[in-house]
Design a protein that fits this description.
The complex is a heterodimer.
Chain A: H1 31-57, E1 69-71, E2 83-84, H2 88-91, E3 93-97, E4 101-106, E5 117-119, E6 124-126, E7 133-134, E8 140-142, E9 151-156, E10 162-170, E11 184-185
Antiparallel strand pairs in A: 1-10, 2-3, 3-4, 4-9, 4-11, 5-6, 6-7, 7-8, 9-10
Chain B: H1 3-15, H2 17-22, H3 31-39, E1 50-52, H4 58-61, H5 64-83, H6 93-102, H7 107-134, H8 143-165, H9 170-184, H10 204-209, H11 216-248, H12 284-287, E2 293-295, H13 296-321, H14 346-351, H15 357-378, H16 394-416, H17 446-467, H18 469-472, H19 477-503
Antiparallel strand pairs in B: 1-2
Helix pairs in contact in B: 5-7, 6-7, 7-8, 7-13, 8-9, 8-11, 8-15, 9-15, 15-19, 17-19
Classes of the chains: A alpha+beta, B mainly alpha.
Amino acid sequence: MAHDEPGRSRPAGPAAEGGPGAAAGTLWMPRRDWLARVTWWSFLGSLTAMSAASVRMLFPRVTFDPPPTFKAGYPDEYAVGEVSERWKRRYRVWVVRTTEGFFALSAKCTHLGCTPNWIETEAKFKCPCHGSGFDPSGVNFEGPAPRPLERFRIVLADDGQLLVDRSRSFRQEAGEWDRLDAFLRLAGRRT
Amino acid sequence: MSLPSLLVSWTRLKASAVWRSVFRHGYDDTRRNRLLQTSSNVFLHLHPTTTPASGLRFAYTWGLGGLSLLLFVVLTLTGVLLMFYYVPDTRRAYDDMKDIEHVVPFGQFLRNLHRWAAHAMVITVWLHMLRVFLTSSYKPPREFNWVVGVVLLVLTLLLSFSGYLLPWDQIAFWAITVGTNMATATPFLGAEGPFSLVTYDNDLRFLILGSRFVGQSALLRFYVLHCLALPLAAAVFMAVHFWRVRKDKFSAKAAPPPGGVVAATIAEPVADGPASAGPEGPRPERAAPAARQVDVWPHLVAIEFLAMLVALVALQAWSLWVDAPLEDIATPTSTPNPAKAPWYFLGLQEMLVYFDPWIAGVVLPGLIIAGLILLPYLDPNPAGVGLYTLRRRRYAVSAFLFGFFLWVGLILVGQFFRGPGWIWYWPWESWEVHKPVYERTWNFPWPLGLAAMAGYVGLGLYVPWRLRPEVFRTIGRGQYVTLMLLVLGMLALPIKMVLRLALDVHYVLVTPWFRI
């Protein structure tokens, strides 16, 4: 009874029975209900917009990461069969020289991103975090790593130096190691 | 001034309008003052004015909830002090740590207090949860407060995790690198997870780090989370937690009749009147043989003060004795070997040996948290509230203790039995000895794997229902299935460990999308 205020069910009387918009002067829905609905939707709308904006704000448009490419010296600086650790400390990359050519191996374990170590005596890369092992070509053979190490784009620069591009990576399990720049063909002689 | 005149001034001071505006009641030991002491003090009024005497037994609560709060306060105070000397900038954070250790007066001591209090808080929060479980203090009407407690446990761990990066030393960098790379393995929301919907530039790890790598933006984010966002969240949930503890009263029951020892714990006879004398008025249904009530001031407050004192002295002594570790400065291109997470996350790290990261780092921790949250809603057994009893809740207690000690066991293995390359080293073996390990693992062919998984889940659901219907039919079908799936998820871990260690099984089920 107390809630039966005027305005809640206008117009009072028989005309109200006719349903929405039945009679002239009948509202589509009681004014208070309409106001309540608008209020709730505005509240939810602004809340959603604010949350969405806040979440989006946490994804920066620009990050300030070091440049992805570097020059890795001249091809004849590498001995055939060598797994070079020369660039590992600075760029986290091993440059591997085989009889057929070069490839650049990412020194980032595919399990959880630790930096593996090259163990010369056992001819394998071994990750210190969870024990994943990779053969010299980068293929995983022990431990929890789910896939081989990634290779980076490697080409010859205009000045004849090797150029490694860490923004372009190739995955063995996707068949990408056969792609053009995943392997730099450059026959070398065993010395 | 003579003594009498001093006393006169003292009395006059206490009668003054200023004094009485601050302290509204006297300190004489009267019943009225005892009650006012708690009810008119903003800090103490988190207590009720009276409480069952049985709840004061130290061997009932072990003071673990209160100690967790004390440690949180210590962490806040020492943390604020450390903030005065620390700048979250990758170029100087590590140097600031060195300054705090060697230049700032008592810097090392305050840092030690902060670090060891954090470790201690993880322990007290865990043990508090264990205690609350063992005394059934999560059963109606306290189910939701258990949920709040689980949230606080998670917040405690997140606070530890976020604080771990700030020293910017090697272990900080690599623990956070490994930890956040697990986010990359999240199903759907991680770039490398099964059914990934995102790339490296907009997945969950990118959200956490603000970059693809652990760098400046990650340090700043962790700093803000650690110093501001997470403590605020913890404070809010703590307020809710304590409020509900107070409203629901202590769960402790008076000890059963033969053990009349308990009643003698509080030596002082209680002249405080009947149990119903509390400010909330008499409650007919509780009036019967209700637990004997005592005044919170001084009985409970004195115990709390004593526990606080002992804990503080112990913490300070420990911090004078043992320095918090600080390794070499963070170097992204060289991972320490072995790279161990902080000890409370070693259980997680050990699970990573047996499962892919999306299971070990995301699904299983998620199941643990979900299981803990759902626990009060899946245990229909009303027995044991306020008592340590195994006999009346055999299944619940054994399942929970199994999980608890499995977790502790994994931590012990990770801490004491894992050496370089995460290879098994006995504690007495030298890590200098190089152990070449060539695993020869194999996978179940997929039809067998599918059959094994289906059989495991199917039988796991069917057999208990069949064998002990009288136990399991006390809960609804949906509850039963949820409960058993959680239990089966928990048991999957030791099963997989045995399969790996004894039979060299790598994956039980291999599909093109994920491997288990």
